[in-house]
Amino acid sequence: MVITVSYHDTASKLQGVRHDRSGPFDGHEWFELLDQHGWQPVIALAEDDLALPLMRGPKGLESLTNWFSFTWAPIGGAGEETTGLLRALAADLKSRTARVDMSPLAGEVHWLGLLEEAFRTSGWLVFREKCDDNHILQVNGRSFEQYWASHPGQMRSTLQRKSKKVETKISTQFDALEWQTYQSVYERSWKPTEERADLLEAFARSESDRGHYRLGIAYADNEPVAAQFWTIENGTAYIHKLAHLKEAENLSAGTVLTAAMFERAIDTDGATLVDFGTGSDPYKRDWMEECRPRYRLTCLDPRQVAAWPAIAKRLFGRLARG
């Protein structure tokens, strides 16, 4: 069977690929949002059944993503024909580039192994490396109260004392004034400047339209001192952004708000998993019980001269490590 591979410069092409969206970063809506905000897609499509959402980077082709994406994956089903479609894409991509970088890939789902096998079978040298951490909480049927009871006594007593001084509000629909409040807290916090606040706001509006939006704001004496943006989808609560004012740290407003968001997600929204995204910030371990690796696949075509320096660097690196 001859599989037709085509390339497209618009993410709207992904709408024709049958796909069951499971989270905020694996549906065509996310890639279209990136397209609309200045990213330049290279959509590699096998028939109309499987797509690799890519973009051109400084070293070759790479995943169509941005820095606050939790994961990246192909668009399409995982049926018996998937292996053949992936191999066709991998083989044809040699006509476009000498290098393909794909990340962040989740090790607990099937795509990592399928992509690695497809590119290696198609003649690429494939290098897998860990690129990040993902902290999660498996709720395992617990109520928030049961989950919270497992925390150290000092943390629980802090929440009990500080909750009397901090008021929290959680919204499920996007409101421009509340979003401005979130932005003001973020801008005055310890967080770095949000590089693409326009993209984040468009994402928040889109998630609100789907009923996934949760925005929490904590107030002390009627002044906003902490804010968090979450989404809820298919039983998973995703923690996207959080910030609090340093001058209000004595109130533990971040802890009070986080607890309120967890309680809402677990007891009201019925979340079975809470996903704290990527990064190994120490505070994540206070709330999460597991850590999962995230991977990068670097695929290099040894027949193309452009790939030789990167291949040599990796091979020498392996020899140096013994």
Describe the structure.
By secondary structure, the chain is an alpha+beta fold. It contains nine helices and 13 strands. It has helices spanning 28-36, 82-93, 111-121, 144-148, 153-162, 176-188, 197-209, 253-268, 308-320; strands at residues 5-8, 41-46, 50-56, 61-63, 75-76, 99-106, 125-138, 167-171, 213-220, 223-233, 236-244, 273-278, 290-300. Strand 3 and strand 4 form a beta hairpin. Helix 2 packs across helix 3 (111-121). The longest helix is centred in the last third of the chain and has 16 residues, at 253-268. It is elongated and about 65 Å long. The protein starts with a strand and ends with a helix. The model has no long low-confidence stretch (mean pLDDT 94).
Question: Given the C-alpha coordinates, what overall shape results?
Answer: elongated
Structural class: alpha+beta
* End-to-end Cα distance: 44 Å
Number of separate strands: 13
Helix fraction bin: 25-40%
What summary fits the major beta sheet? 13 strands, mixed
List keywords for this structure.
about 325 residues; alpha+beta; 13-stranded mixed β-sheet; 13 strands; about 30% helix; elongated
